[in-house]
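Both lines are quoted verbatim for reference:

——
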Amino acid sequence: MDPTVTPASDIGRLSLVEYPHPALFRKSRPLARIDDAVVDAVDQMFSIMYASGGVGLAANQVALPYRLFVVNVTGRPDEGEELVFINPSLSRPRGTAVQEEGCLSLPGLRQDVRRPEKVVLDAWTLDGEQVRFDLDGFLARVVQHEFDHLEGRLFTDRLPEAAAIEARRTLDELRVLFDGRQARGELPDDAAINARLDALEQARCLA
Protein backbone atom coordinates (compact mmCIF):
# COMPACT_ATOMS: atom_id res chain seq x y z
CA MET A 1 0.00 0.00 0.00
CA ASP A 2 1.20 3.49 -0.76
CA PRO A 3 2.16 4.95 2.67
CA THR A 4 0.98 8.39 1.55
CA VAL A 5 -2.59 7.10 1.07
CA THR A 6 -4.81 7.25 4.17
CA PRO A 7 -7.01 4.15 4.62
CA ALA A 8 -10.73 4.89 4.50
CA SER A 9 -11.08 3.35 7.97
CA ASP A 10 -8.51 5.73 9.51
CA ILE A 11 -10.12 8.21 11.92
CA GLY A 12 -7.44 10.87 11.61
CA ARG A 13 -7.98 14.51 12.52
CA LEU A 14 -11.51 15.37 13.63
CA SER A 15 -13.51 18.58 13.45
CA LEU A 16 -16.97 19.71 14.48
CA VAL A 17 -19.65 19.32 11.81
CA GLU A 18 -22.73 21.49 11.51
CA TYR A 19 -26.28 21.04 10.29
CA PRO A 20 -27.18 19.51 7.86
CA HIS A 21 -24.10 17.25 7.72
CA PRO A 22 -25.29 13.69 6.92
CA ALA A 23 -23.62 12.24 10.03
CA LEU A 24 -26.07 14.16 12.22
CA PHE A 25 -29.03 12.21 10.81
CA ARG A 26 -27.40 8.78 10.84
CA LYS A 27 -28.17 6.34 13.63
CA SER A 28 -24.87 5.31 15.20
CA ARG A 29 -23.68 1.72 15.33
CA PRO A 30 -22.31 -0.04 18.44
CA LEU A 31 -18.54 -0.27 18.65
CA ALA A 32 -17.26 -3.84 18.55
CA ARG A 33 -13.68 -2.90 19.41
CA ILE A 34 -11.79 0.02 20.91
CA ASP A 35 -8.42 0.59 19.30
CA ASP A 36 -5.83 3.34 19.67
CA ALA A 37 -7.61 5.39 17.02
CA VAL A 38 -10.82 5.43 19.09
CA VAL A 39 -8.90 6.46 22.21
CA ASP A 40 -7.30 9.29 20.25
CA ALA A 41 -10.71 10.26 18.86
CA VAL A 42 -12.04 10.61 22.42
CA ASP A 43 -9.14 12.93 23.30
CA GLN A 44 -9.89 14.99 20.22
CA MET A 45 -13.59 15.12 21.07
CA PHE A 46 -12.89 16.59 24.50
CA SER A 47 -10.57 19.19 22.96
CA ILE A 48 -13.18 20.14 20.36
CA MET A 49 -15.91 20.30 23.00
CA TYR A 50 -13.90 22.61 25.25
CA ALA A 51 -12.77 24.83 22.37
CA SER A 52 -16.39 25.19 21.26
CA GLY A 53 -17.73 25.97 24.74
CA GLY A 54 -19.77 22.78 25.05
CA VAL A 55 -20.50 20.37 27.91
CA GLY A 56 -21.12 17.26 25.80
CA LEU A 57 -20.24 15.98 22.34
CA ALA A 58 -21.46 12.95 20.42
CA ALA A 59 -19.44 11.05 17.83
CA ASN A 60 -21.91 12.07 15.11
CA GLN A 61 -20.87 15.68 15.67
CA VAL A 62 -17.34 14.91 14.52
CA ALA A 63 -18.51 12.70 11.64
CA LEU A 64 -17.94 9.37 13.36
CA PRO A 65 -20.71 6.74 13.11
CA TYR A 66 -20.06 5.22 16.54
CA ARG A 67 -22.27 4.95 19.63
CA LEU A 68 -20.03 7.11 21.77
CA PHE A 69 -20.27 10.47 23.49
CA VAL A 70 -18.25 12.50 25.99
CA VAL A 71 -19.41 14.81 28.78
CA ASN A 72 -17.98 17.29 31.25
CA VAL A 73 -20.79 19.39 32.70
CA THR A 74 -18.37 22.17 33.69
CA GLY A 75 -17.26 22.67 30.10
CA ARG A 76 -13.71 23.30 31.37
CA PRO A 77 -10.71 20.99 30.90
CA ASP A 78 -9.29 21.78 34.35
CA GLU A 79 -12.55 21.29 36.26
CA GLY A 80 -15.18 18.64 36.75
CA GLU A 81 -15.11 15.02 35.62
CA GLU A 82 -14.52 13.84 32.06
CA LEU A 83 -17.01 11.08 31.27
CA VAL A 84 -16.88 8.75 28.27
CA PHE A 85 -19.88 6.59 27.43
CA ILE A 86 -19.59 3.82 24.83
CA ASN A 87 -22.56 1.86 23.46
CA PRO A 88 -24.94 3.57 25.91
CA SER A 89 -28.58 2.76 26.55
CA LEU A 90 -31.20 4.74 28.48
CA SER A 91 -34.07 3.40 30.57
CA ARG A 92 -36.50 4.28 33.36
CA PRO A 93 -37.35 7.87 32.39
CA ARG A 94 -39.11 9.64 35.26
CA GLY A 95 -40.62 13.06 35.72
CA THR A 96 -40.44 15.92 33.28
CA ALA A 97 -38.50 19.16 33.07
CA VAL A 98 -38.17 22.03 30.60
CA GLN A 99 -34.86 23.81 30.09
CA GLU A 100 -33.19 25.82 27.33
CA GLU A 101 -30.79 23.83 25.16
CA GLY A 102 -28.35 24.64 22.40
CA CYS A 103 -26.16 22.46 20.23
CA LEU A 104 -22.62 22.93 18.93
CA SER A 105 -23.78 21.60 15.55
CA LEU A 106 -26.65 24.13 15.43
CA PRO A 107 -24.85 27.44 16.09
CA GLY A 108 -27.06 30.36 16.99
CA LEU A 109 -30.08 28.26 17.93
CA ARG A 110 -31.42 27.85 21.47
CA GLN A 111 -34.88 26.67 22.51
CA ASP A 112 -36.69 25.29 25.56
CA VAL A 113 -36.83 21.49 25.40
CA ARG A 114 -38.98 19.14 27.48
CA ARG A 115 -37.28 15.94 28.63
CA PRO A 116 -37.55 13.38 31.43
CA GLU A 117 -36.05 14.77 34.63
CA LYS A 118 -34.40 11.47 35.59
CA VAL A 119 -33.04 8.54 33.58
CA VAL A 120 -30.86 5.46 34.02
CA LEU A 121 -27.78 5.19 31.79
CA ASP A 122 -25.98 1.91 31.08
CA ALA A 123 -22.73 2.08 29.10
CA TRP A 124 -19.12 0.98 28.81
CA THR A 125 -16.00 3.00 29.56
CA LEU A 126 -12.84 3.20 27.47
CA ASP A 127 -11.30 0.69 29.90
CA GLY A 128 -14.00 -1.86 29.09
CA GLU A 129 -15.84 -1.41 32.39
CA GLN A 130 -19.62 -1.66 32.37
CA VAL A 131 -21.23 1.20 34.31
CA ARG A 132 -24.73 2.24 35.37
CA PHE A 133 -25.78 5.69 36.56
CA ASP A 134 -29.12 6.87 37.89
CA LEU A 135 -29.04 10.45 36.66
CA ASP A 136 -31.06 13.56 37.36
CA GLY A 137 -30.73 17.30 36.89
CA PHE A 138 -28.39 18.86 34.37
CA LEU A 139 -26.27 15.75 33.79
CA ALA A 140 -29.40 13.75 32.93
CA ARG A 141 -30.34 16.41 30.37
CA VAL A 142 -26.87 16.50 28.79
CA VAL A 143 -26.77 12.71 28.53
CA GLN A 144 -30.22 12.60 26.89
CA HIS A 145 -29.23 15.34 24.44
CA GLU A 146 -26.10 13.44 23.39
CA PHE A 147 -27.94 10.11 23.27
CA ASP A 148 -30.42 11.69 20.85
CA HIS A 149 -27.48 12.47 18.56
CA LEU A 150 -26.56 8.79 18.48
CA GLU A 151 -30.12 8.07 17.35
CA GLY A 152 -29.78 10.60 14.53
CA ARG A 153 -32.03 13.09 16.32
CA LEU A 154 -31.53 16.78 17.10
CA PHE A 155 -33.11 18.71 19.93
CA THR A 156 -35.18 20.54 17.32
CA ASP A 157 -37.02 17.25 16.72
CA ARG A 158 -38.45 17.58 20.24
CA LEU A 159 -39.85 21.09 19.84
CA PRO A 160 -43.57 21.88 19.80
CA GLU A 161 -44.93 23.16 16.50
CA ALA A 162 -44.61 26.90 17.16
CA ALA A 163 -41.02 26.63 18.38
CA ALA A 164 -40.13 24.29 15.50
CA ILE A 165 -41.38 26.86 12.98
CA GLU A 166 -39.25 29.53 14.64
CA ALA A 167 -36.20 27.25 14.61
CA ARG A 168 -36.72 26.43 10.94
CA ARG A 169 -35.45 29.86 9.91
CA THR A 170 -32.08 29.21 11.52
CA LEU A 171 -31.93 25.66 10.12
CA ASP A 172 -32.64 26.96 6.62
CA GLU A 173 -29.82 29.50 6.97
CA LEU A 174 -27.41 26.78 8.12
CA ARG A 175 -28.43 24.60 5.17
CA VAL A 176 -27.67 27.40 2.71
CA LEU A 177 -24.22 27.86 4.27
CA PHE A 178 -23.52 24.12 4.20
CA ASP A 179 -24.67 23.75 0.57
CA GLY A 180 -22.46 26.67 -0.38
CA ARG A 181 -19.39 25.09 1.21
CA GLN A 182 -20.07 21.86 -0.68
CA ALA A 183 -20.57 23.73 -3.96
CA ARG A 184 -17.20 25.49 -3.48
CA GLY A 185 -15.47 22.18 -2.75
CA GLU A 186 -14.73 23.11 0.86
CA LEU A 187 -16.66 20.05 2.01
CA PRO A 188 -17.12 16.62 0.37
CA ASP A 189 -20.45 15.90 -1.25
CA ASP A 190 -22.99 13.73 0.59
CA ALA A 191 -22.04 10.59 -1.34
CA ALA A 192 -18.39 10.91 -0.30
CA ILE A 193 -19.36 11.65 3.30
CA ASN A 194 -21.60 8.59 3.49
CA ALA A 195 -18.94 6.38 1.88
CA ARG A 196 -16.47 7.39 4.60
CA LEU A 197 -19.04 6.75 7.32
CA ASP A 198 -19.66 3.31 5.82
CA ALA A 199 -15.92 2.52 5.87
CA LEU A 200 -15.57 3.65 9.49
CA GLU A 201 -18.53 1.45 10.46
CA GLN A 202 -17.13 -1.60 8.72
CA ALA A 203 -13.79 -1.17 10.49
CA ARG A 204 -15.06 -1.11 14.08
CA CYS A 205 -18.78 -1.87 14.37
CA LEU A 206 -20.83 -5.00 14.84
CA ALA A 207 -22.08 -6.54 11.60
In short: Residues 50 and 81 are 13 Å apart (CA to CA). The helical segments are 36-51, 137-150, 161-183, 190-204. Confidence is low (pLDDT under 50) at residues 1-6.
